[in-house]
Amino acid sequence: MLYNLLAPFADDFALFNLFRYLTFRSGGAVMTALLVSFLLGPRVIAWLKSKQPHGQPIRTDGPESHLLTKKGTPTMGGVLILLALSISTLLWADLSNGYVWIVLLVTIGFGLVGFGDDYLKLTRRGSKGLPGRLKLAAQIAIGALAAGAAIWLTPAPLATGLTVPFLKDLLVPLGWLFLPFAVFVMVGASNAVNLTDGLDGLAIVPVMIAAGCFVLIAYLVGNAVFANYLQIRFVQGSGELAVFCAALVGASLGFLWFNAPPAMVFMGDTGSLSVGGALGAVSVVTKHELVLAIIGGLFVLETASVIVQVASFKMTGKRVFRMAPLHHHFEKLGWAEPTIVIRFWIIASILALAGLATLKLR
């Protein structure tokens, strides 16, 4: 909004020229989201506590310690993330850019799906929310709408092409298959973050790290000079998503203030589904879907552990892990929660660096 209001007057007022720069607006987005989180956080948490006197329902089949350490903590903290992210993005991004609205559609849409799931869990006082098929169908519908809009905005052949890390000239023409592939990326990323969100601070920091990586990726992909130098595909207009990703970094950092152990609030499906979907949508627009699998490798590992556990039990009747997702396995081994969380953060950082290395290693 500030860009649309003030940038046209940059020739008359030199100060307004700052709003033409993505770097300035990205910095403003980080600080705004962080400030909104700090200002609204206590109020949002107090409101959630008033509506949730017993806190988030704790799974009885989960780690026994959670029945003591997590009891009474409110959920739906993703509302705070969505508020900070949306306000900051609308304030600092170019609102005439279609890609910004596509990513916001996925973020808010998935957030509403998660909100409905959290609401039902709270009202029913159990771990069952929306029926799995209904939740998945809603995510697919939102993802398909967003993917179709992204294809329409992106020029051919890039619109339906898949770029491959480390290979500078290869563009795999997926044609109509790109639509289901893009939906799979968004829905998969959303649910992968949801599976990772099981310990205080465990999911939000890797989300923040991934969002920080995509600030850089979006900026480079949207800049013809840098894209040509790095030999990556130039997507005109995608640079504006650097502002969105910067706002996500600020919103994540602000949420971490309240989610750090011992957590004052959990993000719930409202937060995990929305931020995961946001990362997936940004990767689709910037044509870095496969790089997201590297940068967000921790989410991939957590999801893979669940798939392996379920498949092994159905086929052999035996479990590979003591409990899935993976972080619960280490809890069962006796690792302290802060140890698991910090080591997983380290893994996320290493994978993020590996993902960024693909920008140059071509």
Quick structural summary:
This protein has 362 residues and is mostly helical.
Question: What do these coordinates show?
Answer:
49% of the residues are buried. This protein has a domain at 25-160 and 172-286. Helix 2 runs parallel beside helix 10 (241-259) and helix 7 packs antiparallel against helix 11. With 362 residues, the protein is an all-alpha fold. The model has no long low-confidence stretch (mean pLDDT 92). The longest helix has 30 residues, at 22-51. Strands 1-2 form a two-stranded antiparallel sheet. It has helices at 2-6, 22-51, 66-69, 78-92, 98-124, 132-153, 178-196, 204-221, 224-230, 241-259, 268-285, 289-295, 297-316, 326-332, 337-357, and strands at residues 161-163, 171-173.
| Chain-averaged pLDDT | 92
> Which ranges are low-confidence, i.e. pLDDT below 50, for 5 or more consecutive residues?
none
Report how far the terminal alpha carbons are from each other. 37 Å
Rg, Å, rounded: 20 Å
In total, the number of strands is: 2
SSE ordering: HHHHHHEEHHHHHHHHH
The 3D shape can be described as globular
The chain-level structural class is: mainly alpha
Secondary-structure map with pairings?
Elements: H1 2-6, H2 22-51, H3 66-69, H4 78-92, H5 98-124, H6 132-153, E1 161-163, E2 171-173, H7 178-196, H8 204-221, H9 224-230, H10 241-259, H11 268-285, H12 289-295, H13 297-316, H14 326-332, H15 337-357
Antiparallel strand pairs: 1-2
Helix pairs in contact: 2-4, 2-10, 4-5, 4-10, 4-11, 5-6, 5-11, 6-7, 7-11, 7-13, 8-10, 8-11, 8-15, 11-12, 12-13, 12-15
